Please model this.
Amino acid sequence: MTQTIVAHLRYVRIAPRKVRLVADLMRGKKVEKAKVLLMALPKGATHCLEKLLSSAVATASHNYNIDESNLLISRITVGEGPKLKRFMPRMKGSASPIHKKTSHVLLELKEIDPGKKGVIKSIKQEKETKEVKETKKPKHASVARPEKTTEKARAGVKQKVFRRKAI
Model:
């Protein structure tokens, strides 16, 4: 029977998008590999996530007698916490708002049997099927799609690139 160990980290004073960069790299890896990854990354969120991971591993070993080598990061989600709203004084007596963002992190560890490698493969297969479902979109009959053009026809047409500012 596989155990699921849950650990929470709340009100971290780092923006969620910055924490998600590190969390996405950890997802689906074994705990040992994730710890090595966190030691090597030069991000501010690694310190907080390393403490959270070690807390979850300590919970697993103390409460369920599970070895660290049998643990896998099955789920890690980063959500928004409350924003601290401050104001910065500006010219002519006005003020502009500053939102200091916080994050909530949820970490789930799963126990895997040392002899079985199917758990890791099944998690990877679930990710692949989700990606395939997201990429498939229904084709509408009313939208006419241009046929593939030859390279000679494409050479004369410049590709349109989105630019925020005109140069």
The beta strands are 4-12, 71-80, 84-89, 95-100, 103-111. The radius of gyration is 23 Å.
